[in-house]
Amino acid sequence: MSVDVRTVEPASPLEAPTQWVRDRAWIAAWWTGGRALVLLTALIVHALNIRGYSSSESRGHALGLLTGWDGIWYRRVAADGYLLIPGRQSDPAFFPLYPVLLRGVHATGLGYPTAGLLLSNLALLVALVAFEAITRELFGSTFAKRATVYVAIFPLGYVFSMAYPESLVLGAIALAGLAAMRGRWAAAAIFAAAAALARPEGLFVALPVLVCAWRQRHALTPVARGIALGAVLSPAAALASYPLYLGSVLHDPLAWNEAERAWGRAFSPLGVGHAIIHLPHALATNPWLVRDVIAFAVYAVLLVAARRAGAPGPWLLGAVAVVALPLFSGSFDSIGRFGLLALPVFWGLAWIGRTPHADRTIRGASLFLLVALTATIPLVFP
Amino acid sequence: MRSALVTLLVAAAVGAAVLGTGWTVQAASLPAPERGELVVARASTWLSRYRLVDSEFAVDGRPAVRAQCLEGWFPPGRTAGARRGTILHFGRHGTIVALEGRKLAVLGVARPEAPRLALAQLELGGCSRLLSHAIETDLQSLRRVRIERATVDDRPAVRFVVPLKLGRILVYVTPRTYRPIALSITLGTLHGRSLLRLTRATPALLTRFAARP
Prior knowledge:
- The structure holds two protein chains of two kinds.
- Chain A is mostly helical.
- In chain A, 67% of the residues lie in helices and 0% in strands.
- In chain A, helix 8 (166-181) runs parallel beside helix 10.
- The relative contact order of chain A is 0.13.
- By secondary structure, chain B is an alpha+beta fold.
- Chain B is 35% helix and 36% strand.
- A ten-stranded antiparallel sheet of chain B has the order 5-4-3-2-1-10-9-8-7-6, covered by helices on one side.
- Chain B has five helices and ten strands; from the N terminus they run H-H-E-E-E-E-E-H-H-E-E-E-E-E-H.
- The A-B interface holds A 77-88, 90, 96-97, 99-100, 103-104, 189, 193, 197, 222-223, 225-227, 229-234, 236-238, 240-242, 244-245, 248-252 and B 2-4, 6-23, 25-27, 29-33, 37-38, 41-42, 44-45, 48, 132, 136, 139-140.
């Protein structure tokens, strides 16, 4: 008997990271292309001096279009902290993680608008990488590639380039889900907490994390099971830390609810009925609302498609909550933006785009709509 | 049994760690509001929670009068054509009616009053919606708020200035809870002072208010 001995050269320590980056270069390419379109459109709108409702503060910056609307509020929180003004629109309605990071980037010497743009756009790159990884584990690499491209050029995805926390939350949700699937519970806890501290929708990542923990329970030690359960609880705990903080600085732990009410977001079980009954009047007052109504319908279709694609139930349930819960505040306002945080929306789109013709059509339409919707920013809040 | 307990304890520890870290990150990174801003915001919160205010005010060198101001819908109840607004009863017979979409009406006074005097009386009467509106507008203007120590009837207080188009209001609040207790107003050439008492609007008080001619 002869033994064939082969010597295997150990991989260079730098080779693995280099290969990892090389394998994902296409993500960076789509990110660059999509963001270039958004930034270029914003520059053109600035050059054409299309003012709309944009503030003078936003008009002072060449890319100021992307730092307006809620971006101004996040900036205000980062610079001055929270202050509840009863009965008025005030900043406790805006969750704290994004302003905290904004302040951190600002500390490097960048102005707040630049810091916001840098933070949001880099967070999107991380989010795309995390989204591709989790989608590949669930659906395979071809599907993941298609879905990731669609995220990078999604028509309402111009919000990912604005000084808003959406790209950060998308990344945190994808990373929390990915960590849970790989049994990295401490990381899952951190990312799930980050998602909930940046936007209340982050809370719903607890559903897929819970199901992952339940499925792996027999393989875990009691301590690991505890950390997994802690990861499930972490979004709620992070969410609770916000009213706790508001209670300590404003002496009012309910400041968030009061501020939300002033922004017209008072949740009620009858809110859905109110939103539908008052839709004709709301459309007459603000015709731009049709964008969010269409987005809601499109999201509903995409979630059905995601179900047919075989998207896991907990992710679908969380996505339904992200898309439908805002209706309980009695309005369709901003549902288009909120739905960006529902990962199954993009899985549904990737399922629809499974034929080359459908894929080409979706890419073409997305690129066109991305530019068109970016140009509407001065006219309507996202 | 023991392993379940370990699991629950570890989960609780992770939850507590996230809660504590979340709070610490916010407290360490975000600036706390200045005390002046908090005092003004709290004063406004007090006013927004009360729609009935008892007061005693003196304006333009006239003798002090007792007053009572109510915010709400008039006529009260689910009446068709009811309008939101403010009614101030002052002195023996004086009444100022300020309803949305209607002209300011001053009733029960011997001589017609200048609108500016009526406005000063509404503010001095502590009419909570008017007053909180003025305070909130100032707070939203991002002007740096200055607070000062003061006294009201020899009791310690804190005061701050609310600028108006034609003058200013000095609002005096209690030093701990920041509840508004007194006002001093300058409106053009008019000067006035008042003591306030925010009052819970009970059905009996509302009936008595409505019964006044």
